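Objective 1.3, modelling of assemblies. Example input:
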Amino acid sequence: MSTILLRHMAKHQHGTIATVNVAGELGRRIREMGLIPGTEITICGRAPLNDPIALRLQDSTITLRNNEADHILVQVEP
Amino acid sequence: MQLKMALAGNPNAGKTTLFNQLTGARQHVGNYPGITVDHKEGRLSHGGETIIVTDLPGTYSMTAYSAEELVARDYLVNNRPQVVINIVDASNLERNLYLTCQLLELGVPLVVALNMVDVAESRGIEINSAALSRHLQVPVIPIVARSGLGTKALLDAAVAVASENRPWTPLSISYGDDLDAALAEMLAIIDEQRFLTDTYPPRYTAIKYLESDQQLVERGEKTDAEAARRLQQLVDKSTDHTRRTLDVYPEAIIADQRYGYIKSLLRQGVISRKYDADRLYTSDRIDKVLTNRLVGPLIMLAILFALYQFTFSWSEVPVSWLENGFSWLGDKVKEILPDGILRSLVISGVIDGVGGVLGFVPLIMFMFFGIAVLEDSGYLARVAFMMDRVFRIFGLHGSSVMPFIVSGGIAGGCAVPGVMATRTLRSPKERMATLLTVPFMNCGAKLPVLALLIGAFFSEDRAQYMFFFTMLAWLVAMLAAKLLRSTVLRGAPTPFVMELPPYRLPTVRGLLIHTWERTYQYIKKAGTVILGISILLWAMMTFPHLPDAEQAEFAAKRQAILAEAGTDIVALLEGQGDDLPVEAAAVKERLAAIENDQAEAALRHSLAGTIGTAMEPVSRLAGFDWRTDIALLGGFAAKEVIVSTLGTAYSIGEVDVEESQSLSERLKADDNWNRVVAVAAMIFIMFYSPCFVTLVCIAKEASWKWAAFSMGFNTVFAFVLAVAVYQLGTFFNLG
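Predicted structure (tokens):
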């Protein structure tokens, strides 16, 4: 198991969110979408210009910009 | 007795569908004062009770970050509805219950409507609503809002809860030892000082302080500065502690614990899944194509182009009905009323004004119908996803693309529906920047003016020039947006994080209600103002009249020509025959020339003419003479008016917007005009003040202050560009 930034995950890669380290409005928006430590995610893909990124949670699909994803660390299989 | 009921829930949970299902056409849409969040209210009767339903804006939580969330929370604490129906999406239960949790912490009398149980079932998700109800200790009613299944049971439960009339009973969730200890200390202060207790439950206030909720903190400071200071001290202490020991903010712990609470109750026999989590649903399969990195953008262009075609081509038919109707009305009035001020006022002021208001109605209806389809189906979120990278460079948002396209991103749109389309943006600064720059696009009314000038001075490469000016509009609009976002609208981008909701087939009823709401709002709110300004502009171009002496001079000239021509020809002219002999035709032409000269003199003498003439010394910097100035003033009414006003100012009479050949020839021959002046004029016309209909819409969507800003900023901006073009062009002798 290793921990990487959400931004660096590949398409179709699975992982479990380890930390979300941001406060304020962005932190609130990320958390209220269900992106909290322990959530399992899969990368669905990226927009045509590589940004934003789309990810699948158990019951929904969420999209966020790369620089927003930089606050999220994900635990992935090596 | 009347019951007050509120609907709360996540965006895309089916809240509006349920609202439409419950109230049908008996609903009323307005705005909350000062902001553009819709206030929707409807009424229904159930079991002898009359229920007033308020549809709160869709939100994911109850913080103070967005206007929607503030509105929802303020409504609940200030209006104290007897019952709140919280609609949750059964196929996405965990995330939806996050809001439910906060409603329970607030303590409102709650009924949970478990929506889309059919969708959940098709995804292999089974929910034991009885168990969920037992854990949450509120009624949980499974429904399908689209078909109305379960709504009767839902209303029964809601009425039952409302008639209990029990006091608010806030739920208390444990936030872990550290925060619980801090909360206890804060509660002691809150209880002792009765701090904000008439509005919020004590524990709720404490939690919001830990979450550093701006609105509540500010309110607390105003109410009791001393208690607020003591609370803030406790918050700082515990923030410091959690930062040091766990490297997290208290608000993160609160969110985690809320989700923990939800997860643990879902695990207790509430939810069971048949399939594994990675199963692809229809929606994911559609996305594989529609957001594909290669095909996706092409399909998007095709869809946006189709929306554009639908809005502007299909609405042509009703628009032409309206135009014909109003010109018929104008002709009737001409027959009934004698020539004079009253006739001119009724025809040019009132009928043209009302026609101007209603002329946009088909456009607005078609556009909102098209947008509602894209929005309700879930595609609009994908457009934002694909376009965001490009628009973000200029401080805008992926969703900005639609208003730009509608306003004339594909030449020939209209900024009125474009400005109204910015409602789909939920990020306030990005929305405002979009709203203020969409009028830069080449709308359908600017096209005849551009066509006239290109035709006169660059007739050899029309197509290239038209394309160039379309691209220029995009470039300037984007740069202007960037400029605004780094000055008056500066600030960090609003977080983009959003849901890509599952694709759904829109309901016809929802689409029609949505379209009607918007159209009605336009007619009601913008209509009266537009009519008033239309009459004002008419008056500016009409008054003051030519002095009697000058009028008499023109009359004398006419008499002289007629006297010279002799009675035979006069008789021929009065006979109105079409085949006039050569001499008679010549006389008629001379008379028309006098008529045109008189119209020119009258226009110059009017208030608009006086202003235009007074502006000449300044406008000369960009190469415009007083005639152009007057035409540009007229363009404030509607850009295509520039063509007809130029016609009058150059005394060649009424110019048909579609056939401006004679005017084009006249401009080419005029000493004041050359290629450089033409380019300067086109640039000024593209970018100066939006027409007043657009301005009224900006005022209604933002504020009159922003409308005034738009008028001033755009005009100065356009003038600077035009002066630069004219001065450089003249310097290099390109004319």
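The first strand of chain B starts at residue 2 and ends at 9.
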